[in-house]
Amino acid sequence: MAPIIALDFPTLEDTTGFLKRFEGGEPLTVKIGMELFYAAGPAAIKAVRQAHPVEIFLDLKLHDIPHTVERAAYQLGRLGVQLTTAHAAGGSAMLAAAKRGLVAGAASQGLPAPKLLAITQLTSTSATMMHQELQIEGPVVDSVQHLAAVAQAAGADGVVASAQEAPLIRAITRPDFLIVTPGIRPAGSQKGDQVRITTPGQAAQLGSSAIVVGRPITQAADPVLAYQHITEEWRHANV
Ligand SMILES: O=c1ccn([C@@H]2O[C@H](COP(=O)(O)O)[C@@H](O)[C@H]2O)c(=O)[nH]1
What we know:
Blueprint: E1 4-6, H1 12-20, E2 28-32, H2 34-40, H3 43-51, E3 54-62, H4 66-77, E4 83-87, H5 92-108, E5 115-119, H6 127-132, H7 140-154, E6 158-160, H8 166-170, E7 178-181, H9 200-206, E8 210-213, H10 215-218, H11 223-238
Parallel strand pairs: 1-2, 1-8, 2-3, 3-4, 4-5, 5-6, 6-7, 7-8
Helix pairs in contact: 1-3, 4-5, 5-7, 9-11
Ligand LLZGTKA7 binds at residues 6, 8, 31, 33, 119, 122-123, 160, 182-183, 192, 194, 212-216.
């Protein structure tokens, strides 16, 4: 899978203006997150599809009681997107409810169900934060591996985690279980609020199924060139 571009923009105009730079290029996989979806709603999906041929990862990180999540996921399943997320910390009943909702919502429109990715520990979470604020003991990788096992057993299609944890997730999950990794920072780029980071090449070597990249592309002086460099590094290390 090509690198997934996180379209973290405040308006549809900013988003379609950004995609215009890629005009005539290959189809893209893009991530619509909370900022754009809360600003524009399902219209964001339509606008992005009209602007460029895309596969869509709708990253709304569902986390609520199972009944509420199932009903919300039903609505997301109707939108024709390819990937969605829910927090593994919501537990196995909530993840299973998300999966049921996605499948039912998609079926109501005659569409294939979006894949469900479980968020493990956010890539902005440090060991210190996890210990002191979340009161989870031990290494971050142990918590991530545990949440990946919970997610797989609950019927999720994969997880979101740092590539740093990919080898230990791979060791306990089935071969087609997806490991999608944000926290990607090409050498020399700003870390920002990300903590558990890797370069695109390291993510490929560590076994990520796909990488998610936002600011290193969206805030680059030349976003198309930045995307091309990241894609090259990712593909080169994947062979
Ligand atoms: O653990 C997580 C889960 C989701 N994200 C999302 O990925 C992108 C990363 O953007 P950058 O600008 O490359 O940091 C962003 O949309 C996050 O919401 C994550 O970073 N970590």
